[in-house]
């Protein structure tokens, strides 16, 4: 279990993070969400033991990072924002070096290198010099080096940074597969990316923790229904009026869509879809599409991180 | 394997696998050879005198090589972001510094020993004393170690390797020039300045085959002080 209490980091008078407190239970996969510059990297570097905080404590199962730094660091695997790679080494050599550096005994190193390579799909590149690897593979080597000594805690700072959609999906699957075996804290500035991967989210804004909970909990707390979208032909205004009369509908906005149709965005629980479709048809509309709103994650993110949504 | 040896071994691989190490080695051997040919072998001299001049002329390239070898040690780690890997590992900051230093010293010592063919050439037509040879190489190693430590300190202060080399060289040259300043100052400063001069006060006995404890202690003290300061810089960086 990671316990962070009143963690602050000041650079002169400027606070990078302020009084951050949170707990992560063993085996949990937690997302650390915030815009660039919100304090994610600073927090992860402190937790990883690479940076000292101005005040506050970090404890791993009661063991304090400040008083037993090397013991705690040995139990953590850290992937910084830029993977820390030595280009002249091969993947295998590099992972063996990191494993030994993090305190793994020599007799276990070989097997652990193979295991971590297999986990991230790097096994065929074992003898490949790191200098020749593409960005996606470098990112995987970065994850493998965090995993190689089989740490209890994994800290991953934007592991999906710069990955293409396929690699991104693979990275998400990899992080999901770590659940249970490791306690994982993964940072991102893209909500849909970590919402699918994590059990729980910690949201930081300007160095302060502004919310925490699962995606659904956060939505409920902010009063965000999932939202419903429908594309109609015919009297869109009349449909909007009819929908606004429905119980549970908070607002309806109209947006022009292709082929002369209208897109109606309805702020309401998605369980109201049957009533919404009936009301729309009853108001004389031709119903082309009815869906759960796709931009709900975006509006959740914008509300949490402090930028107002415009949609 | 201890963390120091682990870091040293990786670093040494770095020297051997990149062009930098080989280019520095080739340049030093070339310059040593040219200086030996042009200044040590000129005219009619006794073997011991040629050997003394060889060590004298080899000391300059050794110091320059030390600065070039050490400039990357910590600056490159910061530049590439690999310092966080070392910082987040369960190793002490002094082990990081020592590991880096040991690798550079091993490379420089190996490189220095490759010049052995020149003293052996003297032996073809003259006589070379083994004691003189040992004292000279010990002097070069100690001077090299002190220069490397000063360069490592420079490397810890900068993110950019060129700036690191400039800083390391500036510290080294300041210590070299202390003897010049000693002539321009009054006692006790003149005595202090001449005692801390990196080359003039402490290297000549080694080059002529004598080992004085005070010179050995001096070079070890400079090395220790520079590495200690480097460790402190590294510790301070954990706050930034």
In short, what is this structure?
The complex is a heterodimer of chains A (311) and B (240). Chain A is an alpha/beta fold and 311 residues long. Chain A has helices at residues 40-47, 69-73, 91-101, 106-120, 135-147, 165-177, 191-195, 215-221, 236-245, 273-282, 296-305; strands at 2-11, 14-24, 29-33, 55-60, 63-64, 76-79, 153-157, 183-188, 200-205, 208-213, 228-233, 251-256, 262-267, 286-292.
Provide the fold topology.
The complex is a heterodimer of chains A (311) and B (240).
Chain A: E1 2-11, E2 14-24, E3 29-33, H1 40-47, E4 55-60, E5 63-64, H2 69-73, E6 76-79, H3 91-101, H4 106-120, H5 135-147, E7 153-157, H6 165-177, E8 183-188, H7 191-195, E9 200-205, E10 208-213, H8 215-221, E11 228-233, H9 236-245, E12 251-256, E13 262-267, H10 273-282, E14 286-292, H11 296-305
Parallel strand pairs in A: 3-8, 3-9, 6-7, 7-8
Antiparallel strand pairs in A: 1-2, 1-4, 4-5, 9-10, 11-13, 11-14, 12-13
Helix pairs in contact in A: 3-4, 4-5, 9-10
Chain B: H1 3-17, H2 19-40, H3 47-70, H4 72-80, H5 83-87, H6 93-113, H7 117-125, H8 130-157, H9 161-176, H10 178-184, H11 189-196, H12 204-207, H13 213-237
What does this protein look like?
- The complex is a heterodimer of chains A (311) and B (240).
- With 311 residues, chain A is of the alpha/beta class.
- Chain A folds into two domains: 220 residues, P-loop containing nucleotide triphosphate hydrolases (Rossmann fold, 3-Layer(aba) Sandwich); 65 residues, Alpha-Beta Plaits (2-Layer Sandwich).
- Chain A is 34% helix and 28% strand.
- A six-stranded mixed sheet of chain A has the order 6-7-8-3-9-10, with helices on both faces. A four-stranded antiparallel sheet of chain A has the order 2-1-4-5. Chain A has a four-stranded antiparallel sheet with strand order 12-13-11-14, covered by helices on one side.
- The model of chain A has no long low-confidence stretch (mean pLDDT 88).
- With 240 residues, chain B is mainly α.
- Chain B has one domain.
- In chain B, 80% of the residues lie in helices and 0% in strands.
- Chain B contains 13 helices and no strands.
- Chain B is globular.
- Classes of the chains: A alpha/beta (311), B mainly alpha (240).
- At the A-B interface, helix 2 and helix 3 of A face helix 1 and helix 5 of B.
């Amino acid at each position: 279990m990671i316990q962070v209490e009143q963690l602050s980091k000041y650079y002169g008078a400027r606070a990078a993070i302020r009084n951050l407190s949170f707990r992560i239970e063993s085996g949990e996969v937690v997302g650390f969400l915030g815009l660039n510059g919100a304090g994610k990297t600073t927090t992860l570097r402190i937790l990883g033991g690479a940076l000292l905080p101005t005040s506050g404590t970090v404890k791993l199962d009661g063991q304090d990072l400040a008083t037993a730094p090397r013991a705690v660091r040995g139990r953590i695997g850290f992937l910084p924002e830029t993977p820390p790679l030595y280009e002249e080494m091969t993947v295998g050599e590099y992972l063996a070096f990191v494993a030994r550096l993090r305190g793994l005994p020599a007799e276990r190193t070989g097997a652990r290198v193979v295991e971590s390579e297999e986990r991230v799909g790097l096994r065929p590149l074992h003898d490949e010099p790191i200098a020749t690897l593409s960005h996606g593979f470098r990112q995987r080597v970065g994850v493998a080096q965090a995993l190689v000594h089989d740490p209890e805690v994994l800290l991953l700072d934007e592991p999906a940074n710069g990955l293409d959609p396929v690699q991104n999906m693979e990275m998400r699957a990899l992080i999901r597969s770590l659940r249970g075996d490791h306690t994982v804290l993964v940072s991102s500035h893209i909500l849909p990316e970590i919402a699918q991967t994590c059990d729980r989210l910690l949201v930081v804004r300007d160095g302060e923790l502004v919310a925490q909970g699962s995606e659904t909990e956060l939505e409920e707390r902010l009063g965000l229904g999932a939202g419903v979208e429908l594309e109609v032909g015919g009297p869109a205004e009349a449909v909007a009026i009819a929908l606004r009369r429905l119980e549970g509908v908070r607002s309806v906005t109209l947006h022009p869509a292709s082929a002369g149709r209208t897109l109606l965005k309805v702020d309401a629980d998605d369980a109201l879809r049957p009533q919404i479709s009936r009301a729309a048809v009853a108001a004389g509309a031709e119903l082309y599409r009815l869906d759960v709103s796709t931009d709900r994650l975006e509006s959740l993110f914008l509300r949490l991180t402090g930028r107002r949504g415009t949609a | 394997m201890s963390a120091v040896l682990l870091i040293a071994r990786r670093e040494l691989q770095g020297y051997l696998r990149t062009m930098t190490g080989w280019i520095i080695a080739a340049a030093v051997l070339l310059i040593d050879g040219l200086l030996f040919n042009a200044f040590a072998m000129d005219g009619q001299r006794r073997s011991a005198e040629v050997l003394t001049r060889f060590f004298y002329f080899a000391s300059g390239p050794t110091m320059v090589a030390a600065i070039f070898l050490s400039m990357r040690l910590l600056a490159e780690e910061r530049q590439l972001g690999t310092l966080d890997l070392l910082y987040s590992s369960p190793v002490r900051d002094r082990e990081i510094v020592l590991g880096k230093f040991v690798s550079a010293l091993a490379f420089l010592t190996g490189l220095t020993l490759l010049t052995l063919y020149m003293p052996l050439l003297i032996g073809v037509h003259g006589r070379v004393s083994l004691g003189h040879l040992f004292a000279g190489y010990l002097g070069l190693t100690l001077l090299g170690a002190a220069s490397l430590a000063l360069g490592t300190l420079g490397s810890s202060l900068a993110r950019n390797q060129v700036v690191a080399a400039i800083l390391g060289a500036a510290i080294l040259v300041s210590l070299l020039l202390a003897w010049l300043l000693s002539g321009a100052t009054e006692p006790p400063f003149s005595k202090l300045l001449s005692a801390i001069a990196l080359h003039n006060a402490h290297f000549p006995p080694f080059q002529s085959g004598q080992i004085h404890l005070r010179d050995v202690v001096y070079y070890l003290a400079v090395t220790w002080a520079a590495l200690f300061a480097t460790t402190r810089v590294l510790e301070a960086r954990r706050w930034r």
